Amino acid sequence: MRSKKKWGLVITLAMVMLVSTACNSKGASNTDSANPAAGEGSTPASAKTITLGFSQVGAESGWRSANTKSIQDSAKEAGYDLKFSDAQQKQENQIKALRSFIQQKVTVIAFSPVVESGWDTVLKEAKDAGIPVILTDRAVDSPDKSLYKTFIGSDFVEEGRKAGQWLADQYKDTQEDVNIVELQGTTGSAPANDRQEGFMEIIGSNAKLKVIASQTGDFTRAKGKEVMQAFLKAHKKIDVLYAHNDDMALGAIQAIEAAGLKPGVDIKIISVDAVKDGMQAAADGKINFIVECNPLLGPQLMEAVQAVVDGKEIEARIVTDETTFTSDQAKEALPTREY
Ligand code: GZL
Questions:
Q1: Within a 10 A sphere around the Cβ of 334, how many other Cβ atoms?
Q2: Residues ≥6 apart with Cβ < 8 Å to 224
Q3: Which residues are near ligand 1 (CB < 6 Å)?
Q4: Per-residue pLDDT reduced to its tens digit, 71-124
Q5: Total domains present in the chain
Q6: Which of 220, 273, 318 is the pocket-test mutation for ligand 1 (most atoms within 8 Å of CB)?
Q7: Which domain holds residue 116?
Q8: Per residue in 257-287, pLDDT tens?
């Protein structure tokens, strides 16, 4: 009897040892891989299960490529599982992507809406599925602000005002009419609507500053060149080009030079973004003034994702810091530009 009891005790002890070792190794592996700060075996759900569904506008410009890289690099650094989709600048592709993220039950959805309108239904589907949504880069015009947690991006109206103010200062004493042509961004997009609004708000007070033509170049180099060619054919005197982004300005520069004119001299050029190629053109004197639009939104987006997952309060609107560059300032800033 005594030896049976003894063996029973030994086996029980062995069982207890076995179970506690298993817990430790599980706790240790969780702690090591996901979140060292979480303490022994107590990884918070947020650290090990965050999946972020991100729907990107497309790959239409240097700005967009820099924005995509910032988001992908930041998600990797945060240890999030990023599901990334490129909509090729089509709203229907973005809506499909958002619905797919809802089906996959991702933790958080983020996207840069290609245009302002037409999102209420799919955003309501995300809300009904209990998946928080974060807007980056561009806004939506949904009146129901509860459909998304925050909007992280530039103030495009202010960008337009900065462009208009530089022009108004350049021509404040002009006695001649100043003929301006405008290359608008993607029709219906927040940056196109707002950059035009801010620009007109400032130049509208000077009757000599006349916008004689305004057309979308869809934020691309190719379209910017094509539309500028048409402007040059239709108008014998163009003094200024206002382009809503560098890629359209760079396409327009090709058209201006092909017409035997000097960009930055015969036709003054104002642009927005301040991506490397645009800053190089400014340093070369082909673009006279660039309004920066910061694409490096990745870090702010990941902070917002973590705050949402942790149930913390976040600002409804997070505005990115940005500046402006004359040709000389662009020359100075170029060597240290991140994008
Ligand atoms: C602005 C962004 C715009 C850039 C363009 O935040 O949405 O889209 O200005 C890009 O270069 O295509």
A1: 14
A2: 183, 217, 243, 247, 248, 249, 250, 251, 252
A3: 60-61, 63-64, 137-138, 153-154, 191, 219, 245, 247, 272-273, 293
A4: 999 999 999 999 999 999 999 999 999 999 999 999 999 999 999 999 999 999
A5: 2
A6: 273
A7: 48-154+296-321
A8: 999 999 999 999 999 999 999 999 999 999 9
